[in-house]
Specification:
By secondary structure, the protein is mainly alpha-helical. Helices cover 78% and strands 0% of the residues. Residues 4-10 have low confidence and may be disordered.
């Protein structure tokens, strides 16, 4: 009888303590919520911790504490809060969404994908598309990014990433509209503008290329040697040879006698039928290396284009004697490839 009485007493006491703990947990939770609303994040953090101390299975307290920690940029603490909430309630959509976003932001892309597949969230397609792109699964990335943009066509980052995805899929023409959309939505992103300029350059649309190079520069893009080189050649190929050479001379002043650049300039002039200018640069290369048979051959072709066929033919013959493999280009009446 005494044992039964003691057992009942213990049960009643436990129930009383449990009820009191829950009341205390709820008190501190409600207090912390109000403090969070007032942006008293540090104070709220302590009261959320007290609520959890009184009730270690208080899922809502873990979630609210996690969000409060995010407000203070305490990412590790927030992650711990959401992980605990996930253990207690693995089907809680809010928790899954928070962990999905944290995983994505921490570059844990496979984990973000796994969580996204469980989440009924508005941004699932975006997270999946971005994550698959980062994991180099471009087919899936394109599918989900297209879906994300169909739901939110103002998402510049998704548009840019879809453009990059199309490049990886070797669909350059499909990439351009996405880059255009991205730079329209985010008009200060100089890196995006420069990349769009390069895309147009590769499509031989040099006027649009210059347009976006100019935009990139006006938004602070670093004018590296590569920038000046692409800009200068775009000027030449768009018909502005005078300014193109001025631009390219910036690099030549930094890298005097750079044979590769001199060669590219010479070929640019040859391609645009400015044969006197082309000959000047082929001559500069030969002054640096008289044994350069390919450049000598090109000089011969240029003389022929200028109407000096006999002189040009003799120079081509000399180049072929130096490098017999060049004879195939004379037979086909074309310039050497891959220069």
């Amino acid at each position: 009888m005494k044992k039964l009485f003691f057992f009942l007493f213990v049960c009643l006491l436990s129930s009383f303590v449990f009820a009191q703990n829950q009341d205390s947990a709820r008190f501190y939770y409600n207090k912390a919520v109000q403090e969070n609303i007032s942006r008293l994040y540090s104070v709220a953090a302590k009261d959320f911790d007290k609520a959890i101390e009184f009730d270690s299975k208080f899922t809502d307290a873990y979630i609210a504490s996690g969000k409060n920690n995010l407000s203070m940029r305490r990412i590790t603490e927030a992650q711990e809060n959401f992980n605990k909430a996930y253990e207690l309630d693995p089907k809680n959509n809010d928790v899954i969404s928070q962990l999905m976003t944290l995983s994505f932001n921490n570059h844990q892309f496979q984990k973000a994908i796994d969580l996204a597949q469980k989440c009924n969230c508005d941004n699932v397609s975006r997270i999946l598309g971005m994550s698959y792109y980062s994991l180099e699964d471009y087919g899936k990335a394109a599918k989900y990014l297209q879906d994300a943009l169909s739901k939110d066509d103002k998402d510049a980052e998704s548009a840019y990433t879809l453009g990059r995805t199309y490049l990886e899929l070797e669909e350059e023409k499909n990439a351009i509209p996405q880059f255009e959309k991205a730079v329209e939505l985010e008009p200060t992103r100089s890196q995006w503008q420069y990349e769009l300029g390069l895309l147009y350059y590769n499509q031989n649309d040099f006027k649009n290329s210059l347009k976006y190079f100019d935009l990139a520069a006006s938004n602070g893009y670093n004018k590296t040697n590569d920038f000046y080189e692409n800009y200068g050649f775009a000027q030449i190929y768009s018909g502005d040879a005078e300014n193109g050479i001025k631009t390219l001379n910036i690099i030549l002043e930094r890298k005097p006698n750079n044979k590769e650049l001199l060669n590219n300039i010479a070929h640019a002039f040859y391609d645009t039928k400015k044969y006197n200018e082309a000959l000047d640069y082929f001559t500069k290369i030969l002054n640096l290396n008289p044994q350069d048979a390919t450049t000598l051959f090109m000089a011969g072709l240029t003389f022929q284009k200028l109407g000096q066929k006999e002189k040009g033919q003799k120079i081509c013959d000399k180049a072929i004697s130096m490098d017999p493999s060049l004879s195939k280009y004379r037979q086909k009446n074309e310039m050497p490839q891959g220069l």
